[in-house]
Write a structure and sequence with these properties.
By secondary structure, this protein is α/β, with parallel strands linked by helices. Helices cover 29% and strands 18% of the residues. It has seven helices and eleven strands. The two termini are 21 Å apart.
């Protein structure tokens, strides 16, 4: 039985995903039927080795894979780039066996790419009036302890209607850091259960409107908010931090830890 492939850590989600050639005469875009697909892990080897000047060994350490694997990915990436340039083909960046950096490395620290990845990946559509609502999320319900939520469900709203939604892992970011995660997600409004005073201040500093003290189904809460019927507590508090309890009764949830394991993007 063959060994499963290991996820390749990618620290920068590219801001531009499509590169198209133009006609040398009319300067019009050329749209070939057979674009070259550069995967996210291939893109990362090009970024680290050719732009940042990493050796293949250093690149492997950054991506969490062996130097031999880096060499194979890098050779494939260079061949695809050459094919796109020489043949005048469209280049599209997508897919691959990768895991966006979750804010932690083998050394236990991160260069800050976790929040930049969120910022780039979840940029709001340009030229549209989009409101973005986040809800602390667990099994379709509103998670009752903001500082230990492991997921947010994020909703895009246009003209009073939800147009898109997605569940985003917080990857172990806690308390004050979560306000930064919400800012990176371009969130305007947060719906949650209990929340501490420090987190409230952090949300306010980032211009995020808070609806606390809410429980029940996450989707229904968002619909109620949009209909002007959401029942919430403007004084909702979760003031159990720093007292040394192993567990605390904020909405019935104990201390939650980050998963530490993340699925590859296919």
């Amino acid at each position: 039985m063959s060994r499963p492939r290991k996820c390749r850590r990618v620290c920068y989600f590219p801001q531009t995903l499509i590169f198209a050639p133009v006609s040398s005469e009319k300067r019009d875009p050329v749209t070939p039927q057979d674009p070259v697909i550069l995967t996210l892990d291939e893109y990362e080897t090009i970024r680290l080795i050719d732009k940042e000047g990493f050796s293949q060994e250093q690149c492997g350490e950054q991506m969490g894979i062996s130097r031999t694997t880096v060499q194979l990915i890098y050779v494939s990436a260079r061949k695809k780039l050459a094919d796109a340039l020489v043949e005048g083909k469209m280049l599209r960046i997508e897919g691959g066996e990768y895991q966006l950096c979750n804010g932690e490395t083998d050394a236990g620290s991160c260069c800050g790419c976790f929040k930049r990845n969120l910022n780039q990946q979840y940029t709001k559509p340009r030229g549209e009036r989009i409101m973005r609502i986040a809800v602390t999320f667990e099994k379709e319900e509103i998670f009752q302890h903001f500082g230990h939520t492991e997921q947010f469900k994020v909703y895009d709203v246009e003209d009073g209607k939800v147009t898109a939604s997605q569940v985003v892992d917080t990857n172990g970011q806690g308390h004050g850091a979560l306000a930064g995660v919400l800012k990176a997600l371009h969130v305007d409004v947060l719906i949650c259960g209990g929340i501490g005073g420090g987190a409230r201040m952090a949300l306010d500093a980032n211009g995020i409107q808070l609806y606390g003290g809410v429980s029940g189904n996450a989707d229904q809460a968002v619909e109620a908010l949009l209909a002007g019927k959401l029942a919430y507590d403007p004084e909702a508090r979760c003031d159990h931090h720093g007292h040394g309890e192993e567990h605390h009764g904020c909405g019935g949830h104990g201390h939650c830890q980050g998963h530490g394991e993340h699925d590859c993007h296919q």
